[in-house]
Amino acid sequence: MSDATLEAVQVERPGRLKEFWYYFRENRGAVIGLYVFLGVFFVAVFAPLLAPYDPTEQFRDHLLQPPFWQEGGSLSYALGTDALGRDLLSRLIYGARFSFFVGVVVVVIATTGGITIGLIAGFAPRWLDTIIMRLMDVILAFPSLLLALVLVAVLGPSLLNAVIAIAIVLQPHYVRLTRASVISERHKDYVTSAKVAGAGRLRLMFVTVLPNCLAPIIVQAALSFSNAILDVAALGFLGMGAQPPTPEWGTMLAEAREFILRAWWVVTFPGLAILITVLAINLMGDGLRDALDPKLKRS
Amino acid sequence: MSEPVLVAENLTQEYVLKGGLFGQDRIVRALTGASFALEPGKTLAVVGESGCGKSTLARVITMIEEPVAGSFVLDGTPAGPDTLAALRTTVQIVFQDPFGSLNPRQRCGQILEEPLIINAPEMPAAERTRRAREMLTLVGLRPEHYDRYPHMFSGGQRQRIAVGRALMLEPKVLVLDEPVSALDLSIQSQILNLLVDLQERLGLAYLFISHDLSVVKHIADDVIVMYLGRPVEIAPKADLFDHQRHPYTKALLSATPMADPTLRKQRIKLVGELPSPVNIPDGCPFAPRCWKAEARCRTERPELDQGTHRAACHFPE
Amino acid sequence: MSLLEVRNLSVDFATTSGSFRAVDGFDLTLNPGDITAIVGESGSGKSVAFLAMMGLLPWTATITSDAMTFDGHDLRAISPRERRKIVGKDMSMIFQEPMTSLNPCYTVGFQIKEALRIHLGMDRKARHARAVELFEQVGIPAAETRLSAFPHQMSGGMNQRVMIAMAIACKPKMLIADEPTTALDVTIQAQILELLKSLQEETGMALVLITHDMGVVAETAQQVSVQYAGQKCEQQEVTALFSRPHHPYTAALLAALPERATTKHLPTIPGVVPGQFDRPKGCLFSPRCSIATDLCGTTPPPVGGPEIGFARCHFPINVTAEQSA
Ligand SMILES: Nc1ncnc2c1ncn2[C@@H]1O[C@H](COP(=O)(O)OP(=O)(O)OP(=O)(O)O)[C@@H](O)[C@H]1O
Ligand SMILES: Nc1ncnc2c1ncn2[C@@H]1O[C@H](COP(=O)(O)OP(=O)(O)OP(=O)(O)O)[C@@H](O)[C@H]1O
Ligand code: SF4
Ligand code: SF4
Ligand SMILES: [Mg+2]
Ligand SMILES: [Mg+2]
User: Fold this and answer.
1) Nearest to C14 among A7, A13, A299 (CB)
2) Is residue A6 pLDDT above 60, yes or no?
3) Positive or negative CA dihedral for B114, B119, B125, B129?
4) How far apart are CA B249 and CA C15, in angstroms?
5) Fewer beta carbons below 10 Å: N end or C end of chain B?
């Protein structure tokens, strides 16, 4: 047999990770988003070490104390206190934990469910596919927050129920995305060649096809992370999410509503926290899409 | 003459094209009445224009699809749903596009081992790895390629992996669906040599699908010429290239460009496009483009005649 | 004066892992009525070189050249507006993929008339008449009715003919056909090549045929230029190239043709075309060349004279005594 062939191709081509980082880095916003995201993550993990006080501890002498740079503020309550005298900074720091909890749980539930259903729809005979997709369309036809509200109303208001409701509402996006990629991958030759090697249906679905559909799903996951935070905050604001005294950002906003004119800081800081986190994640999601979607690559 | 490993009888495949809201369903007759035999160590080439059913034949023979009519026998066992599992390792396939036929998320080693994991789950992992590494050398790749992903390989190297994967189960019949069409000339010759070597060593039978007649002339023992899903001429290679009995084969050969600028040959000009397999004309399918067509051709369908050099034409040469 | 004159054209792409030279020192001179074939393996920069001339490369590409003139215009200094006037009119291209080069949302008739309107400013009637005439010229039967067909309603061969009709609509002085027949069957390919040749004879345009099919080259071209890894390694008149190649790569390529085979084993060229990361220092062909010496590995070979087909090689082959003198 010929010998010969492959002298060349010794040299390493850039690895996938390196290439990914190259494209990701191109997008300045995404990199900033990533750093902010990592920052929030760090704060959430080390909340007990970073927070000056317990988030539920009430300092009765310091009700509605303004942030330190304002008249009457002090550095011991850097961002001021709320109507019950709780330190706002500590509550925000602990709030990051809840936001992360919400984001992670929602994404995990929605992706596992969505991917499984999407895979089934992609491989199913036409009638089953149609049933699944129409069902998803029905869910998508409702305004997402409204549907989540109804679900929470049925399940009872609590953070966990809110999370489950949001996961259910977000799920159809994953189903559609997975199904679309599955259908385009399914007819490629490598799938046929796995079939010829004798691979069963489950193996085809999870081992052969799924890994090749992950890129858009990862992007969607990043985006729904921020959606989840936003929706849980909205539910909290409506009193259907985390219950007081949980230091959840949306709930904090809701509690502070009546003081909006007297004490701007009790509404502004939780609002800013939500805004910055959501913005950072969205920016990062954009970068992820650029880096993972080969069609947008420039070379 | 040895026992054939593959005997196909009257294989026929149809697809239904769903009409729109008001349209009628239409039937695509992709393959009609294909019969042939293939012996171990031999190469049977299938040539014809795009859409004439070559890949359909490949899919039927590799049991990816079940034919709507006809049957075939692989290594003495009639193929069918019951014998599918038993015959899975007898026939394997290599596809045209080496970029699409390897899973981009699997390493070269995994790609080679997958058929064993599925078909011989009891085999110890070390044994699998040993065989995969052996296969790498057999198809002319290097041991260090074991851990690489497909995107790190060139087209020719990928095609070697694809051939290697198909051989992992030690098949008796290898279906090659345009294995060199996507490759450059210099790489094409490497793969053709590899195929010739493997055939000699392992006694493989090849069903070699191609539209490049110069490649077919090089590698085949026998040739089937297909037109609109039907075999129109079947002959040993030497006979076929020596003289063509069916007008279509003649036209095909005359249209094939020869890499020799001094050669000025007479080209047979075919008028009209290849008709679609949705409405195949009655009578001879080639009649609308044939310069020898007569009234009889349009009404009566010619069948393959008998002998070693068979043609389906009312007026064969 | 020649129609097209390109000297030392190079194209670099910025990529993930640094800059990548896709075209390296490309030279080409074309006179009206020439049929030149550019052959080479996939990725040897055939398409990119011509896209660079037409200004159709993305911004990641850096184009440098010593000279690049077409019909009296300097393509390096030309304004985008001027370029648009030339490209598609005097300098026209048939792209590699017929199916993706036509817009699926419009009828083929609309698309061809659009080209006529923009470049020639014909009125509606004249456009229609010309479109019908063009369709007949490229051998599309029932031209009138085909004008209102959408690309997906026609076969690949028909679409390719529509592409050709569009490319020749404005009577170009130079037509670049980038693999015009790779997607087609041999019987259709023969028709298309025939068509291109007869159009060339009728209009006297210069025709550039980019391909990797040696058979097509042998049957169609007058001049052949062989590309390897972005460089031109040899250019000769077609019969001379096939009988007496001067560059070892050309020789090896011809030897690898199955139709020239004498044994069951074909002569091969070991290895693969160098990529971005394994470009040799000296001659680009040196890792695969059967007669390479140490010199080849270290020093890039010079470009030879016309008597040895401009071969880019230290040791050109098939050279007679008087040629080397
Ligand atoms: N799943 C399918 N559904 C409907 N029609 C099909 C299907 N598969 C193939 N066909 C049709 O059957 C005919 C034969 O197709 P096939 O792929 O066998 O052609 P081929 O000879 O391999 O062509 P090529 O040289 O282009 O690969 C074509 O007209 C094709 O459109
Ligand atoms: N936009 C781009 N960015 C980076 N590299 C590119 C770009 N376009 C082309 N290339 C590279 O330039 C080289 C030459 O490409 P080109 O398309 O000219 O090849 P070709 O000779 O036409 O090949 P083929 O026969 O496959 O058409 C290739 O290696 C290709 O990967
Ligand atoms: S049967 Fe008639 S139409 Fe058909 S190939 Fe023969 S001569 Fe031509
Ligand atoms: S310069 Fe040397 S390596 Fe390059 S083609 Fe000539 S002989 Fe071969
Ligand atoms: Mg095919
Ligand atoms: Mg090209």
Assistant:
1) A299
2) no
3) negative
4) 48
5) N
- Chain C environment of B262 (Cβ under 8 Å): 239, 242-243
Q: Is C154 helix (H, G, I), strand (E, B) or coil?
A: coil
Query: Is C215 a member of any domain?
Result: no
Q: Domain containing B305: what range?
A: 6-90+171-311
What pLDDT does residue B19 have?
67
Ligand 5: distance of its center to the CA of A46 in Å?
60
End-to-end, the C-alpha distance of chain B in Å comes to 28
Containing structural domain, residue C121: 101-169
Does some domain include residue B124?
no
The predicted-structure confidence for B36-54, as pLDDT tens digits, reads as follows 999 999 999 999 988 889 9
Task: List, in sequence order, every residue forming a beta bridge with C175; answer none if it has no partner.
Answer: C92, C207
The reply to whether B55 falls in a domain is yes
CA–centroid distance, B53 to ligand 3, in Å, is 20
**Contact residues, chain B, for A6 at CB < 8 Å:** 140-142, 145, 157
Residue A14: closest C-alpha in chain C? C17
Mean residue pLDDT across chain B: 89
Give ipTM to 2 decimals.
0.86
The DSSP string of B72-101 is EEETTEE-STTTHHHHTTTEEEE-S-TTTS
pLDDT beyond 60 at A62? yes
CATH number at residue B269: 3.40.50.300
- Residue A276's closest CA among A92, A69, A68, A109? A92
The secondary structure element, H or E, covering residue A174 is: helix A159-186
Kindly report, residue by residue over B60-108, the tens digit of the pLDDT: 999 999 999 999 999 999 998 888 888 989 999 999 888 889 998 888 9
Local structure of residue C3 (DSSP, 8 states): S
pLDDT in tens, A109-123: 999 999 999 999 999
Angle, alpha carbons B293-B296-B299 (nearest 5°): 105
Residue C315, burial from CB neighbour count under 10 angstroms (0-12, 13-18, 19+): middle
**Does residue B204 lie within any of the structural domains?**
yes
C38, C42, C44, C48, best to mutate for ligand 2 pocket (most atoms within 8 Å of CB): C48
Domains and CATH numbers, chain A: 42-296 (1.10.3720.10)
CB C36 within 8 A of CB C222: yes
Location of structure tokens 């140490």? C294
Out of C110, C143, C169, pick the residue that ends a domain. Answer: C169
Q: What is the pTM of this model?
A: 0.85
Q: How far is A10 from chain C (nearest CA, A)?
A: 8
Cα(C10) to centroid(ligand 2), Å:
13
Count how many domains chain B has: 1
Domain assignment present for C264: yes
Q: Is residue B212 assigned to a domain? A: yes
Interface test with B, best of A2, A3, A5, A201 (most B CBs within 10 A): A5
Closest B-chain CA to C158 = B273
| Closest B-chain CA to A215 | B105
- Last residue of some domain: C169, C199, C227? C169
